[in-house]
Input
Amino acid sequence: MDPNGNPFVGQPSIDQETVELKQISTSAEPSHIHSDGKKVTTEVNAENQEPIFDPEDAFPEGGLRAWLVVAGACLCLFPSFGFMVSIGPVQDYLNRNQLSHYSSRDVGWIPSVFVYLSLGLGIWVGPLFDRYGPKWIALCGSIGYLVMMFLLAECKVYYQFMLCLGVLGGITGAMLTTTSLACVAHWFKERRGLTQGIAMIGSSFGGLTIPLILRKTFPEYGYQWSIRILGFIFLGCLIIGNTIMRGRIPPSKNAKIKIISLSIFGDIRFSLLTISVFCFEVVLFGALGIVPTYATISTDYPPDTGFYLISVMNGVSSIGRLVTGYISDKFGRFNTLLISAIIALISMLVIWLPFGQHHLGALYAFIAIFGFMTGCWMALVPACIGQLCRADEFGRYYGSSYFIASLATLVCIPISGELVEVVGAQAMVAFYCAILALGVGTFAASRWACLRWKWDWTAKV
Output
């Protein structure tokens, strides 16, 4: 102010300053530089002047904390997804012992319900994850899953297996699988294909080791202690996994929990992708569930062939998840997944269909190729879903997609058992070839939609 009480020229009055400050606090978008050199845009809360970071702009893409989350997800997926993809030997054992007076179709409903709920209830777990974060969901799921394992050792009749493995295992398995994959999506975007492939190695390693463990323990220690041994192994994995697995995006306390979000299916890319995932799950879990029975009933192969086939499939699958996850980040996740599905279809038509019943070497060759390609499916489907949504919406999108896809797992194993017993193994394989061909077609259409209906073979999608 000058001596006469008038403001200096060019100096705003107090009221003008207040108005300008208010405008800045409500509309400006300041930025800062993230530790990895990326510019991160933020909004400012008008009430308390605190910056609100947009999670889409601040993915760490590495660092100790992020890689510990990947390791924790891997450990949690070992007992959950790993037991799902190795359920065939358990189903075959029950079919030959405790539940021998039931048909393969009836016994098949138990693992079908288990896998169905584990995948389908993601539509419930996903929004809860977005709303509350992973901590308590993963902890409750771990406790319930361990209770299921030790109760499973005591089951003797059909309804007990269904309630314990099918229902309790399915509910708690959904809490572990959805939470683990969603946590990884919080920390990586550019390298999401690779990191989710690494996390999914946990399920492949479970699918590799669990059948071999059961093959050794079933004849030596019996059913009860075989399942208890698995329970103690799962206990160690889940303790470490819960300790190091964390979410990055703060839970949205004001977000409404929408269990069913029909609006997201208005995106034709997502809808076509969901149809493809449905077809992939029919083929994948149908094969995993029926291969031991296929090797036992329809051929003259040695009795242990089923154990080895599942182990080979899951062992090679772990390599497929890692290799194709890395490739997908370079050349596109949709591109990599489409090529892998086409190769899997060709191997089914050329090897499994004509030679699977009579040539053990050909069957192992098919299982190795199929395992590698399905490893790509399991690693890249979550990455493709994440490519169509924001990181803070991943739980809802993943859960909604797998709610539809899980319907496939509910029926594929019983249908497989019925086809093998009624019309033969070749008819079953032909059925899977037709389903996979449909999945390849809809997935190609989803990629086409991502390019706004302008097909480009070289586009990174």
Q: What stands out?
A: Residues 1-5, 7-51 have pLDDT under 50 and may be disordered.
